[in-house]
Records
---
Amino acid sequence: MLPRKTFAIISHPDAGKTTLTERLLFNSGTINVVGNIKSKKSDKFATSDWMKIEQERGISITSAAMQFEFNSHVINLLDTPGHQDFSEDTYRTLTAVDSALMVIDFAKGVEERTIKLLEVCRLRDTPIITFINKLDRFGKDFIELIDEIEEVLQIKCVPMNLPIGRGKDFLGIYDIKNQNAIIYKGNETQIIELKKLKSLIDDQIYLELEQDIEVVENLCDSFQIDSFLMGKITPLFFGSAIKNIGIRELLDGFIKYAPEPLPKNTNISKIDPSDPFFSGFVFKIQANMDPAHRDRIAFLRICSGNYKPGINIYQTRTKKKLKINNALTFMASDRHSLDEAYAGDIIGIHNHGTINIGDSFTQGEDINFIGIPNFAPEMFKRVVLKDPLKSKALKMGLKQLCEEGATQMLQIYNSNDILLGAVGSLQFDVVLYRLKNEYNVNCILEGSNFQVARWLRFNSEQMQKQFISKLDTQIAIDHQNDLVFLASSRINLSLTEERWPEVIFSKTREINY
Ligand code: G4P
């Protein structure tokens, strides 16, 4: 079995995640041609963009898993949606990785979405490798950039290499440890010792490099693997995804430093990847990956043991056994059946509505992987059906979309009103689009007075009854039959919390646990 590395790329939109993904695949020999890069201006689309709506809008909405080999390693790359409106999806994807590759635009530095994504990584101390992209343009001053990353993201930077030149004079990469320059000429590279470099390049570029080397020697800590694994320091790699400069060095660094599968938390104890029994959890459900198949795939991260076709696994939520014959692996838009898969791998399981996000699978042990939450929606819309006869199809469609985590359906207590809850408004667009295209249901969404939602927990049935009888117009039932309190404002929520001190109002809910 080859060692596994499972990671995701995180970045602010436009920093170059798609271009870099394609370059990683190219440099690992997985694809032979580049140039399918998503373009907002043309109808070309990225290998990782599956949904039509994404292509139309030029944003990456769905997240996917791709597997490829590099240097005797199997790499699982999980795609996270770039758009903030799909942050819940991104959050859950990040539960399934062991490290993250943060892409920063050299000119723009640390951007808002990167800050948020790093906060999520920090919740689990995920190790972060940083790629500073777009060195073929002029950007920030080197020290300023490091200061910015360290201050804003609260993580210490340890440059592993340095850029030689910037903008149109970006010539290559200087490897700090080996004291070698790697000069790029098209796809060819030439390795040159630092002392010999001086006579070969422009004085100004050499001087700048010398200054950068001095800064690193004097100001930056040395690379300590333990601090990296604790998420306290990040190794920096420089390059240009579009020019294919520094990508090979990044991949080599990634293989060297990114951790192999790490233990995962359950409600009982940590599961170690070397544990012999199969275990894993579902972090994503995706529909219509291939319109020809019209199916839904549950993405499962294997946490221990291995998969072989015909394996019997146990779904701890439903306590049912499931025989899996044809788990899938993915390479961009291609998919094929797997002969085997190991801890760290992501497998796709055909799902006919029986698997939910957050489900744990074992070989009989009653354990649940934890830390895969739903977040309370922050935006609400009332669903108005254009054709009232379609109400059954609407409910079915919404149920399935909820299972995928695309939205949250809230049925108002004692009423036929259905609200949709979302964390970002684009989620509503996706739901409307998919209801129409996949379920043939036309509806419109109207504004709602509610602004805040909290899941409810009661100490006693009596308390639950009392609460519901007093506040039934503000209570809804979600698609998993949990009770939700809806408030018109944060003040209204605080007042209710004060009045009902024994009731627990919760902002997140562990899925299926
Ligand atoms: P994203 O997935 O993070 O949103 O970023 P994406 O790869 O789509 O890149 C965003 C833009 O940045 C694209 O340009 C892409 O070509 C450009 N880009 C990516 N890497 C580099 C780089 O190393 N140097 C330079 N100079 N540009 C880079 P676009 O104009 O938005 O799209 P397109 O018309 O070029 O496809």
---
Amino acid sequence: MKKYKLIGPITQLVSMEKSSVKGPIKDEELVIIENAGLLIEGERIHMVGIFSDLTKKAGSLDVELVELSADHVCIPGFVDAHTHICFSGSRARDYAMRNAGKSYLEIAQAGGGIWDTVIQTRKASQQELTYGIIKRADTLLKKGVTTIEVKSGYGLSVPEELKMLRAIKNANTSSEADLIATCLAGHMLPKDFDGDHKTYLEKISNSLFPLLKQEKLTNRIDAFIEKSAFLPTDIYPYFKKAKAMGFDITVHADQFSTGGSEVAVKMDAVSADHLEASTEDEIEMLANSNVIAVALPGASIGLGCNFTPARKILDAGGALAIASDWNPGSAPMGDLLAQACILGTFEKLTNAEVLAGITFRASAALHLNDRGRLAPGMLADFNLFQTDHFNEICYHQGKLDPSEVWKRGDVVFQQ
Ligand code: NIG
Ligand code: FE
């Protein structure tokens, strides 16, 4: 095997270099290299530039030439920074009831909601959960998603959360995509827990957190801040403990009511996700912080709710990532690119902002600085779309699939 690979000529290479993590981006500001080449060494990018220049430079190297004959646009591998793809069962009945006008309470009383998925997921073996994750991760990978965050949160006890996080860890060893695990034991107070919110969170932080460290299952802690889940007063001590142990914090914030994003800012979380209910106050607070705002259009589409005020967040100077929230309840579609493009049309985001939201801004939401842009030293995670202009990617609203997906320097999907 040769030491280097040179890929090209590429009609347009969208490097995402130089664009800032915060604030608006005009399409004209994107760094685009025409007739480009990508020189890869192992799993990382060695050089990005004009193909003819790279061909000359590569002359003296031990290089394999991967020549492209048709027009291609090259863009960093997509990063889905918020999913719940470790689950069992379907919530099609919830979906039907919701669309038929039933309330949240009526659905819960009929045995639906998060708790239904907890029951189904607890019944599944760790192996079954692993298979489910691999299958869903593969679906995302074929759509160009090379890094996927995966939450627990349907176990809601120490052993069941461990089972989910071990399943995620095992799936990561088989999946072509990188899976980044997050502990969401703070998803809701389990109905079978004998105690209040505070006692439950104490149990999790005292008994589960040390095991997460010991088994290296995750370095991220999430919680759902909402009246139906956990209040800020419950969550502060929980997050403080997590931070003191070195975990990154991420928050399900402002989905139906406000309060969560304030916790995210005060706790210096890496991200605040959802934000459909955020008002001007929350938008300003987030924009003045280092917290990445993560819009989840899949949940808005799944629930028939308004979208996260993405335009306002960007105009206020905030950092906006976009993720799929793929889960069996509120976001069953699981198509990141389609959802990001749809958010773009409703929120008047530029194509640059949509694509930034699922590349380097999404990797920032995961605290990862080795992906999301195409530059020397970064992971060679990228997509080739068979088209001559990057505008075509958003224009097709998720229907234009990558012709090749590359992960860590190798082709992992081709069509
Ligand atoms: O991100 N909001 C809370 N949690 C998930 C929904 C989970 C479920 O309904 O199963 C979300 O939308
Ligand atoms: Fe979620």
